[in-house]
Request: fold
Amino acid sequence: MRVVSSIEEMKGLSRGLRKEDKTIAFVPTMGYLHGGHTELIRRAKGLSDVVVVSIFVNPTQFGPKEDYRSYPRDMERDLKICREEGVDVVFTPEAEEMYPEGFSTYVTVEGLSERLCGVSRPGHFRGVTTVVAKLFNIVTPHIALFGLKDYQQQLIIKKMVRELNMDVKIVTVETVRDEDGLALSSRNRYLTDNERKVSRLIPEALKRAEECVKEGVSEASCIIEEMKKVIDRKPEIMVDYIKICHPETLEDVERVEGEVLVAIAAKVGRARLIDNLIIKK
Amino acid sequence: MRVVSSIEEMKGLSRGLRKEDKTIAFVPTMGYLHGGHTELIRRAKGLSDVVVVSIFVNPTQFGPKEDYRSYPRDMERDLKICREEGVDVVFTPEAEEMYPEGFSTYVTVEGLSERLCGVSRPGHFRGVTTVVAKLFNIVTPHIALFGLKDYQQQLIIKKMVRELNMDVKIVTVETVRDEDGLALSSRNRYLTDNERKVSRLIPEALKRAEECVKEGVSEASCIIEEMKKVIDRKPEIMVDYIKICHPETLEDVERVEGEVLVAIAAKVGRARLIDNLIIKK
Reply:
């Protein structure tokens, strides 16, 4: 396994792989890898000759009051996991090289970026699309893999790729969950034992929405009320939003018809957790 | 010469050329080709195996009250010129395919895009960087050529390429001028005979700035005054700006020291004309 931190070296490596006609699959991460990441890596291995994983805690996607500094990092552990999973190249650029002084070029997907998490995290998705565009240009993957836990993110990235005519196929992978249903996330690390227990109500609320639809409820406001009842069992969960929306436009729907996205964001202790479920009627 | 209008076809063609290890040089244009464009094409031919010229009047770089609809177009004449110049591929996408309904992804170079022409043309450079990013992803050139008449544009594109880690070398080519000094531009087409004559004062004002510096004047405000005296000889010229600025940051300088950019934008009749000169002290 090769570990590369220089942008030029990574570019040269990708160029060489392309010359040799190797298919490159790319898994961009912020490190502190968990089972969701390893699932992406396994899928990537099945789809390509060479798997590149980037580990980069991207400063431009954090707000000034967010957890950029405290975001969990453990490069040694991450490299061990990558090695065990048979990753070919780990790209670990430095923030100073990714964003040299005076940096001012941004990629924005307007509209989609302002919904759901975009409301309480202005600028977040601009940071995501900018770093992903940069990483795609450096790694030049044929395929890039993203988890569906970050549903809005993968939707925005797909739109960016399509609209900027990037030559990358985006593959999405189902959310990986712990036994009690909580979606895996590097930020789960922030949770105390009690907060960890409480957090399971987040996926439970999503399941409650699914049940409601099965029971024949289709009024979005009623379903959201039912979800709130689940969440409200524990005062430690501070809801940011609970939304039922169109799975492509992310616009609120009044009634569940066809496929909808049920999405939730909440703070539990220091951790801001997100989760979602696609429900079909 | 191949003429391609489908994005997918152009992508396939570029992919094929890259596979054969051909060097692609790219000249993006809005058509209505003149001697400035043919100069770019000639330079491109000397630098590559295959020359691709795009002809696309890009709607997103025009303001709502600007000349998108009336911008001069003559595809037949353009194709003839390209054929004569030995262009290999002409890419002529449709606006509907470049910007499908709901399009909302933009590339912005903040800062530089808001100076000079960015003041009276808000959104203009966002349109330019977005279309150039798209065209680069479609054509996948090794080299792209831009004229220095659009000085601010080439500066912004170089910054975009550098900061988004695009793998394209930007080559700039000196402004081509008519015998009387007027910079070639498709918009010169708008000028009446009298306006055409009057317009030569624009490059004359730039020369006046150069003379001033040679004569030992280095106060920017004094030089601008002298330039205005030249322009004011003809009331048909409505100045948008006359600026003396740093050639990289485009920030106004108070005194000419080292290299500066002298830039001018003015309306003459229906035409908005721009020109510039780099002056060294």
Observations:
- The longest strand of chain A covers residues 259-268.
